[in-house]
Amino acid sequence: AQSVAQPEDQVNVAEGNPLTVKCTYSVSGNPYLFWYVQYPNRGLQFLLKYITGDNLVKGSYGFEAEFNKSQTSFHLKKPSALVSDSALYFCAVSYNSGAGSYQLTFGKGTKLSVIP
Amino acid sequence: SQTIHQWPATLVQPVGSPLSLECTVEGTSNPNLYWYRQAAGRGLQLLFYSVGIGQISSEVPQNLSASRPQDRQFILSSKKLLLSDSGFYLCAWSNRGSSSYNSPLHFGNGTRLTVT
C-alpha cells in the first residue's frame, strides 16, 4: 500500500533563510510525487511534480524539490523564504487504483511559518 | 484555460437537513472529478471520484452521496446531515486517460460546511 509521511507538523523559518519541508513516501512500483500548497480557506494549488528524469524538480513560486530514491524522500525546498510563503504544504503520491484510474494519497500537511 | 467553480463558499446547516454542493469545470472535457473533505484544516480524505457521467466510486462509507449528471458537473449530497459532516469540502479535477498517473489535481476554493 502507498503512504506519505510529513514528519513535521510545523516548520518555522526566518524570512530570507532557506527552507525545507520534508516528505518521505512508500509505494510499490515507480513513484509519482507531487507537492501542493494551501492558503487559508482556499483549495490546494499544485506546485511541482516528479515523474522521471532529473532528481531536482523546479516548480512554481521559486520552489524546488529533490527526489532521493535511496532515502525514499521528496523534500520541498526554497533558497530564500518569503513571508508570503507561509501556508500549509502537502506532499502526495500517485497510485494505480485499478481500471487505469490513478488516485493521490496525501500526507497530513506541514504548516510553514516564515517570520519577518 | 481551465477553471473550476465550487459553491457555496460557506454553509451553515442544522442537523438532519439535506445538503447539495455543486462543482463545475470549464475549459476541459472528460475530466476525472473528485470530492475531498478536509477536517480541522489538515488531512485530506477522498470521498468520491468519477471517471465519467454516472460513474461514481465511493472511498468511504457514510451518509453522503455524489452524482455526475453532466460531464463537467459533480454534486455532493446528503439526505440528513450529521454533526460529524462539518468540514471543508473540496472539489477537484484531473486529466483522464493514459497520462492520468502524472496529472496533477486542480482544486476549487472549497465549501466550509458547519452543521449545527
Helical fraction of chain B: under 10%
Can you summarize the main beta sheet of chain B?
7 strands, mixed
Q: Describe the global form of chain B.
A: globular
Q: Helical region count of chain B?
A: 0
CATH architecture of chain A: Sandwich
SSE topology sketch:
The complex is a heterodimer of chains A (116) and B (116).
Chain A (H helix, E strand, L loop, with lengths): L2 E3 L4 E5 L4 E3 L2 E3 L5 E7 L5 E7 L5 E3 L5 E5 L4 E6 L8 E12 L2 E6 L3 E6 L1
Parallel strand pairs in A: 2-12
Antiparallel strand pairs in A: 1-4, 3-9, 5-6, 5-10, 7-8, 8-9, 10-11, 10-12
Chain B lengths: L2 E5 L2 E4 L5 E8 L5 E7 L5 E9 L2 E4 L5 E7 L2 E6 L8 E8 L11 E2 L3 E5 L1
Parallel strand pairs in B: 2-11
Antiparallel strand pairs in B: 1-3, 3-8, 4-5, 4-9, 5-6, 7-8, 9-10, 9-11
What do these coordinates show?
The complex is a heterodimer of chains A (116) and B (116). With 116 residues, chain A is mainly β. Chain A has one domain: Immunoglobulin-like. Helix content of chain A is 0%, strand content 57%. Chain A has no helices and twelve strands. By secondary structure, chain B is mainly beta. Chain B has one domain: Sandwich (Immunoglobulin-like), CATH 2.60.40.10. Classes of the chains: A mainly beta (116), B mainly beta (116). At the A-B interface, strand 5, strand 6, strand 10 and strand 11 of A face strand 5, strand 9 and strand 10 of B.
Summarize the structure.
Chain A is mainly β. Chain A has strands at about 5, 10-15, 20, 25, 30-40, 45-50, 55-60, 65-70, 75-80, 85-100, 100-105, 110-115.
What attributes characterize this protein structure?
heterodimer, A: 116 residues, mainly beta, Immunoglobulin-like, 6-stranded mixed β-sheet, 4-stranded antiparallel β-sheet, 12 strands, globular, B: 116 residues, 7-stranded mixed β-sheet, 11 strands, 0% helix, 56% strand
